[in-house]
Amino acid sequence: MIENIKAFLGDFFVTGDPMIYGADVSIALASIAIVVTLTYFKKWRWLWDEWLTTVDHKKIGIMYIIAALLMLFRGGVDAILMRTQLALPNMNFLDADHYNQIFTTHGTIMIIFVAMPFIFGLMNIAVPLQIGARDVAYPYLNALSFWLFFFGAMLFNLSFVIGGSPDAGWTAYAPYAGPELNPSSVGQNYYYIGVQISGIGSLMTGINFLVTIAKMRAPGMTLFKMPMFTWSILITSLIIIFAFPTFTVTLALGLFDHLLGTHFFTIGGGGSPMLWANLFWFWGHPEVYIVLLPVFGIFSEVIATFAHKTLFGYATMVCSMVAISILSFLTWLHHFFTMGNTAPVNAFFSLSTMLIAIPTGVKIFNWLFTLNKGRIEFTTPMLWALAFIPNFTIGGVTGVMLAMAPADYQYHNSMFLIAHFHSTLIAGTVFGVFCGLHYWWPKMFGYLLNEKLGKWSFWVFMISFNVCFMPMYFLGLMGMTRRMYTYPAGLGWGPVNFIITIGAFGMGVGFVIMAWNIVWSAIKGKRDTTGDPWGGRTLEWSIPSPAPEYNFAHIPKVTTRDAFAAMKEDKKRGREQKPKPFEPIHMPNNSGIPFIMSALFFVAGFGFVFKWYWMGIPGLIGVAICMIARSFVYDDHHHIPTDEIERTERATGRLS
Amino acid sequence: MAASSLSDSDKRKNMPLEYTTEEGDLRIVGFWIFMASDLVLFSTLFATYLILQGSIGNGPSAKDLFEIGPVMAETIVLLVSSFTCGLGTLELRRHNTKGLIFWFVVTLILGLIFLGLEINEFYVYSVQEGAPIHLSAFLSGFYILLGTHGAHVTLGIFWVICIVIQLAQRGVTPVTARKAFMAGLYWHFLDVVWIFIYTAVYLTGMVI
Q1: Do B45 and A216 touch (CB under 8 A)?
Q2: Is B131 within 8 Å of chain A by CB?
Q3: Residue A546, preceding bond cis, omega within 30 degrees?
Q4: How many CA atoms lie within 13 A of A23 on its CB side?
Q5: Is residue A472 assigned to a domain?
Q6: B40 and A246 in contact by Cβ < 8 A?
Q7: What is the C-alpha to C-alpha distance for residues B101 and B92, in angstroms, rounded to an integer?
Q8: Is residue B146 part of a domain?
């Protein structure tokens, strides 16, 4: 009996590695610290009322960003572990299995649990404010999206200490990820289920923001008067809606191969491992644009604001985003040119991939022309935006190199490819979300991040990024392939790898400075009393910082693009509109159901990971009960009375 | 949320009950978009099934397995349930709570009969004919495609039960009208998916 329990616990908890024990201890200590702090300061009630049950898009946005930053830390530590292992030939820092797990979790976490939630956080904060709305179309659903993401991420991260992480790469290619070659299933199940749970949340966010932007714009804001960031989110939402259901199915089929013994992607029984690659990338390539188009929107806002000019080529910006969104569904096969497709098929996907360079190039030139003859102000967000242009272009150009199918036989799965997609995803997405974070920070919290520390973190991170990834292109051309856990001396790879590792640590330092900046500014940061610290052009800067619960005391009337810039101009000329009396504002009620329901998803998911149906099925029944309970809630909104609005507006100096 | 101006609410007065509030309008639009995404979900399953249809491994082929009788019964029951659901929506337009509840209950019963027939079909194939889900890729694709549709029907049944209870409690209001209308859309959507299943799975499976 005791032997049985011992054997079970030995399988259940990951054992035998000092780093894992370190992680166990730090998880336990952090949990205890959180519980003790909350209890000591009597903050449980506050946590529940203000955050866990909130349906306010601004608070949900903040929670998304906090979670994304924490996950960025985890993914970054993964990266640094990998780079330490590769710094010198024949290193023994990580063994092969552990290395495989770490590159898998690094990729999955960075895409699914960092890039997506960071963007969702920024769009939650900015989009309703930019279109003059008081919340998103479905505030309750928005909370549910967040908590599904959160518990999906927690489930995935748990694999590190309980049961073991997946090791088949973030793409989880069959047949290696399948039950024939991965018979224990636990790590792979974590991947399928953790990503699935948060993916459902992403799909709902897509629907939510599409309807919000389509139906809730302030009067007068026609589609072609929307801010460019809002446009990018509208198009991103459409991509999410048409790409994510495919991923839902793909993950479910992969899971069924493990749980039910189906033969979708297996070698035996007529299954088709290639089908996984096709289905995965049919979602996976649009996903690249789901994390890129929003940052194109952020850069458009920031460059226009700090060049103090209206955005150049508005209509072509929109058209090129639409073109990118359509093309993004027609290029998935370029991820596996070498898997034995016929020449005409490769030729088609080669061409469709190269075509994407055209609309992207149009956007790059539009940004450059926006800068042309502008009064450029070099703030931290602007630095991130300016650095994006050349660094991302390098990623784009090497992308066109990879798009040539015959040449791809050389580049495929080499470090050249790794350097390419990090050039696009770091110089694009990461620079973009950092840019947006600094830009909208005062709107979120009412104070600015320190400029000096911000610039330090920018320069350290940006230079280290180039130290890390520029040599990697050459390393790829020298023959080093991806996912090698070590390499022998004498191939000439050692010095280059060592430089890359220095760059990786440098990026870590840049991130730490940014974290320090957040802490420092929280205590000593400059207050934003005007609500418009940057001289902004769009409606989010027309309201106080941080935005009041109801966002706009009066819904603004929009007559032109850059609505707030026009309002300021009117004010200068003394054509200000007279203030109208306040009206009670209709607001949605908080709800605990999203949190509870997502927690039950977590319980169910954990059960299915271990094939514990006694746990999984009751978990799902609990989810169903939550849905039924919600169906019977009719008292789901309240009104903010006019005197409370008046008090709030007076407190922010908006009423004299 | 309260962005609607006076002219907007005036316009809404002449619309069907479920569209009379801005919130109802928003949710119906969102539900259409959800159905579009669900369509992509089913498209992926159809594509998977059609690719794997010929990969029968050591199991039976579609021609060996399928029988027309139970399939016709399922089809007729589901199509009739879609018709009765439509009659329910007509009663909704007349603000007739009792009529609406009556037709929704008929729809529910037909939905349950459909589910029973489908479960029986699965039982016959997997146990009596010896063709369970883990025998071949074709069978995996078949059970999962039809199972997903069946799971949608099951969810729909629970949803309609909730709505019938709320209709009985509250009568036809803008909120219950919106819910009943959306459930109707969902039910018709499942019917459309079934027509594709009938064609792509059974018809091609038995003829080709």
Answers
A1: no
A2: no
A3: yes
A4: 18
A5: yes
A6: yes
A7: 9
A8: yes
CA A564 remoteness from chain centre:
28
Decide if B75 is inside a domain: yes
Q: Please report, for the domain that includes residue B152, its CATH number.
A: 1.20.120.80
Distance CA A18, CA A12 (A): 17
Indicate the pLDDT class of residue B3, thresholds 50, 70 and 90.
Answer: very low
The per-residue pLDDT for range A329-339, each reduced to its tens digit, is 999 999 999 99
Residue A342 lies in a domain: yes
Q: Is B1 on the interface with A (CB under 8 A)?
A: yes
Residue from B34, B37, B43, B48 whose CB has the most chain A CBs within 10 Å, to mutate: B37
Q: How many domains does chain A have?
A: 1
The whole-model pTM stands at 0.95
Size of interface A-B (CB pairs under 8 A): 135
Give tens-digit pLDDT for A422-460: 999 999 999 999 999 999 999 999 999 999 999 999 999
Q: Can you say how many angstroms the Cα of residue A589 is from the centroid of all Cα atoms in its chain?
A: 27
Sort out which chain B residues have CB atoms less than 8 A from A269's CB and list them: 55, 57-58, 134-137, 140
Over range B15-40, report the average pLDDT.
93
Mean of the pLDDT values across residues B168-183? 95
Domain of A584, CATH number, reads: 1.20.210.10
What is the reported pLDDT for A563? Answer: 93
CA–CA dist A307, A243 (Å, integer):
35
Domain encompassing residue A360? 43-591+636-651
Are residues A633 and A591 in contact, defined by beta-carbon separation less than 8 angstroms?
A: yes
Cα→Cα distances A376→A318, A383, A458, Å: 24, 10, 17
Structural domain count of chain B:
1
In a domain, A8, yes or no: no
Closest to B118 measured CA to CA, from B136, B141, B140, B145:
B145
The ipTM assigned to this model is 0.94
DSSP type of residue A638: E
CA atoms within 13 A of residue B104's CA, in its CB half-sphere: 32
A275 contact residues in B (CB cutoff 8 A) = 48, 51-52
Answer whether A168's CB lies under 8 Å from A188's CB.
yes
Subunit contact A134:B41, Cβ cutoff 8 A: no
Chain A touched by B49 (CB under 8 Å): no
Judged against a pLDDT cut of 80, whether residue A364 lies above it is answered with yes
Q: Is residue B11 part of a domain?
A: no
> Are A261 and B52 inside 8 Å of each other by CB?
no
* Helical (H) or strand (E) element with A21: helix A18-40
Containing structural domain, residue B151: 17-207
Q: For A153, what's the count of Cα atoms within 13 Å in the CB-facing half-sphere?
A: 28
Q: What is the pLDDT of residues A119-144, one digit of tens each?
A: 999 999 999 999 999 999 999 999 99
Contact B37 A241 (CB under 8 A): yes
In chain A, what residues touch B33 (CB-CB under 8 Å)?
A: 207, 210-211, 241
Asked if the structure places residue A100 within a domain, the reply is: yes
Q: What is the DSSP string of A121-162?
A: HHHHHHHHHHTT-SS-S-HHHHHHHHHHHHHHHHHHHHTTTB
* Optimal mutation site among B26, B56, B154, interface A, most CBs of chain A within 10 A: B26
Angular region, A484: left φ>0, alpha ψ -120 to 50, beta rest: beta
Mean pLDDT, chain A, as a whole number? 94
Q: Is the dihedral of CA A534, A556, A54, A211 positive or negative?
A: negative
State the Cα–Cα distance between residues A141 and A23, nearest whole angstrom. Answer: 34
Asked whether the beta carbons of residue A264 and residue B52 sit closer than 8 angstroms, the reply is: yes
Q: Is B8 within the bounds of a domain? A: no
Closest CA to B48 of B141, B122, B139, B133: B141
Q: Region B17-36: what's the mean pLDDT?
A: 93
